[in-house]
Each structure stands twice: as C-alpha cells, then as structure tokens.
C-alpha cells in the first residue's frame, strides 16, 4: 500500500467537518447551530416564514444564491451569483439585518462590504464551501514564502476567487491583488497582467485551479503549459524554483466538489443522447469539459443564455442541480437537462433549508441576532482592499 510518506505528501490539516456538527476553527465554516430548530415536518413553516418576514419589514434583506433550494429562494428579496449578491448586499445600507442564504465566504464578503451597524446572518453555520476550505491562511503564507525563496514573489500578483475565506482575501489585498468571481475572472486577470503594478508578469490564482486555468487558456490565449499547479500538501508546492520562474499562472490545487463531477464522458454521452444539444457549463468545471462545451459561463450567464435561447432548443447544463431544475421548470418550451446522470447538489448550500430560515427570521423578529458572521477589523481592512479592487474592475 502507498503511504503518505512514500508519496512525500503531508496529510491535510483540515479534515472536512461532519456536516453541521462539531467545530473546526481552521475551517472557513464553522460550528453547531445553536437554538431549537422547527421540525422539518411542521406544516406551518411557510406561513411562519411569511409572518416573521412581514414583522421584520424593511429591517431585513434576504439574499439567495442561485444554488439554494426552491423553498428558500421563495423568500429571497434578490437572487444572484456571488458577484451580484456582493453588490446587492453593499447596496442596501438601510437594512439592519442581511440574511445571506448562500455559503460562509459569501456572508463574510457581505459583512466586509456592509456597515458596522448591519448584521450579516448565515442561517446555518455549517453552510461552508469545500473549495474555500482547500486554501488555509497558513498554507497560503507558506506558498508566498516558497515564491519569495524562488525569487518570484516580487513579480507575482495574487488573484483570489470569491470562493475563499476572508483570511485569503486579506492576504490578496495585502499583496496588491484582487478578488474575482466567475463572471469577471477574465477582467481580473487582464488587470493583474496589465495594471497590477510593476509586479505583473505572474499570477498566483487561488483557490480554484479550474477557473484559473480555464480563464487563462480560453480567455487570455495562454497555453496550458504556461500554468503550473501548486499543491499545498507537498513540500514547495511540488514545484521547483525553475518551474515557478517559467510559469505565468501559478494555480492553487483546489477545486469545486460539485463542478468537478462533470466529465468528458458526460459531455459525449449527452451529445449522443440528444442530437444538436448545446452544452453549457460553469468555468469551475475541469478544462477538458470546458474545452468540449459549446458555451461557458457563470450562473448569471447561464440564466441569461437560457432566457435568450429559442423555443425548441436543447441544452445540457453543467452546474448545480437546484438551479438547473428551476431553469427547466421556467422554460417548458426548451429541453433543459442536467449534464451528468448523477444527482449533483452542493451539499453545503443545501444546509440552508426552511427550518433554518424560519428559526433565523423568528429569532430576529424577537430581537435576537443569531449566527452573525463578523470578520475582524484587520482582516476586513485588507480583504476590503481586494474586494474593492474587484468592484472597480472595468
Ligand atoms: P457563481 O455564483 O460565481 O456563478 O459561482 C458558483 C459557485 O460555485 C458559488 O459557490
Ligand atoms: Fe463551494 Fe462548489 Fe458548493 Fe460553490 S458549488 S459553494 S464552489 S462546493
């Protein structure tokens, strides 16, 4: 049997939490949900959510990411991808409570972009993101030391995907970099290579290797050989100083467990089953899947593409299943199928359900603030620099 020792690989310091149980301060998500949740079988849940929301009135603003369950989306004041929701949160200074039906890193970003007087609330603290957990602050600091040692830190601009903890965003801000989302990754990379200051000939892209590679190769015309993969579980990231010096994109070895499921086989299979089908995938999918697709884009892009599609057209969508199901229901005149044969929900997004939403809203209506997400001042300062750089991208 192969051991970690023979592979020269360090075991992950961050075993995934058993969902919704226990606590891991190293994880971007957190702890047990306090309080008594209503029973999921309670037939009055919808009415209770309506009553509590009405009682709160303008004081509460509910944001819903596109991957949330229908039962939660029904109560969202706005829906969107992570970029749109960050802007929407920043654009609501009058709301006392921002209830973020998304995942932990999104709520952190909303806290950073809203005022001290506003409380950002995540209805279930176990709603984290396994991709964000793949880059810890210690690992990234160690990586920067490796780049410094190789003599390339001075010419490297960090670009971090929104799907990262506030600590990683602060690292990015501290080192003159920007945040990006799947809808503006191309602009963020163009900025980093053209205007990221004197240090502009390399990007350290965190933590999603696929979004980094797909954007560099598809949108910026780089060769896959311009990219190297930094593995935080290997000494020096598994790279030599020469490899680091030769690379243009240093990709962190992280991925999305949901989008990572789509394969070239799923694309070939759906093309054989549905002649003429348009394959549309999220850029968090592997490069070979993206290369075989007809179109690639963020969740907002996918929604707009289907809105604009002619009646009778057929589409296979490679993104989270809650969204694909809603799109299929909204467009009965088009054939919209899920790209994979296997069910593919984001299990952490799905942590937020009606019982958690009811518990949150009723607690707020009783004057009790629960599950508040608060980023400490220093982290907030540097993370905000990186987020504001993103919001200012042309
Ligand atoms: P967007 O919301 O940027 O499309 O990203 C999808 C995602 O995986 C969110 O966690
Ligand atoms: Fe994270 Fe992927 Fe879920 Fe998005 S879909 S929250 S990237 S695990």
From TrEMBL:
Superkingdom: Bacteria
Chief place where the protein resides: cytoplasm
GO BP terms in the entry: 'de novo' NAD+ biosynthetic process from L-aspartate
Xref: InterPro entries: NadA, NadA_sf, Quinolinate_synth_A_type3
Co-factor binding details: Binds 1 [4Fe-4S] cluster per subunit.
Pathway as given in its UniProt record: Cofactor biosynthesis; NAD(+) biosynthesis; quinolinate from iminoaspartate: step 1/1
Keyword flag Amino-acid biosynthesis: no
Annotated binding of [4Fe-4S] cluster, by residue: 129, 256, 346
Free-text function comment from the UniProt entry: Catalyzes the condensation of iminoaspartate with dihydroxyacetone phosphate to form quinolinate.
Assigned protein family: Belongs to the quinolinate synthase family. Type 3 subfamily.
UniProt-listed HAMAP family: NadA_type3 (MF_00569)
UniProt-recorded name of the protein: Quinolinate synthase
Protein's gene: nadA
């Amino acid at each position: 049997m192969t051991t970690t020792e023979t592979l020269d690989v360090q075991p992950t310091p961050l075993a995934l939490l058993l969902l919704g149980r226990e606590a891991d301060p190293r994880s971007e998500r957190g702890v047990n949900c306090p309080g008594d949740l209503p029973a999921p079988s309670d037939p009055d849940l919808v009415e209770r959510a309506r009553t509590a929301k009405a009682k709160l009135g303008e004081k509460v603003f509910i944001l819903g990411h596109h991957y949330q369950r229908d039962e939660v989306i029904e109560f969202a004041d706005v829906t969107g991808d992570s970029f749109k929701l960050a802007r929407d949160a920043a654009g609501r200074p009058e709301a006392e409570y921002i209830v973020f039906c998304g995942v932990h890193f999104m709520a952190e970003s909303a806290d950073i972009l809203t005022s001290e007087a506003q409380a950002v609330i995540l209805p279930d603290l176990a709603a984290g993101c396994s991709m964000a957990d793949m880059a810890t602050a210690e690992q990234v600091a160690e990586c920067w030391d490796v780049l410094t040692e190789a003599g390339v830190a001075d010419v490297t601009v960090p670009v971090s995907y929104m799907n990262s903890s506030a600590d990683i965003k602060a690292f990015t801000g501290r080192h003159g970099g920007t945040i990006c989302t799947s809808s503006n990754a191309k602009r963020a990379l163009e900025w980093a290579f053209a205007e990221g200051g004197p240090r502009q000939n390399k990007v350290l892209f965190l933590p999603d290797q696929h979004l980094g590679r797909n954007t560099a190769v598809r949108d910026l015309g780089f060769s896959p050989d311009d990219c190297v993969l930094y593995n935080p579980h290997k000494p020096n990231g598994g790279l030599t100083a020469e490899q680091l010096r030769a690379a243009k994109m240093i990709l962190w070895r992280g991925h999305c467990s949901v989008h990572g499921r789509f394969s070239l086989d799923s694309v070939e299979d759906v093309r054989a089953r549905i002649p003429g089908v348009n394959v549309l995938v999220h850029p968090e999918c592997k490069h070979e899947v993206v290369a075989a697709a007809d179109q690639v884009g963020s969740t907002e892009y996918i929604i707009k593409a289907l809105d604009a599609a002619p009646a009778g057209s057929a589409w296979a969508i490679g993104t989270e299943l809650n969204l694909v199901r809603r799109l299929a229901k909204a467009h009965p005149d088009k054939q919209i199928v899920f790209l994979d044969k296997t069910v593919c929900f984001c299990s952490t997004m799905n942590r937020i359900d009606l019982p958690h939403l009811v518990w949150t809203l009723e607690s707020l209506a009783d004057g009790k603030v629960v599950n508040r997400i608060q980023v400490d001042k220093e982290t907030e300062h540097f993370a905000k620099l990186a987020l504001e750089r993103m919001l200012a991208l042309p």
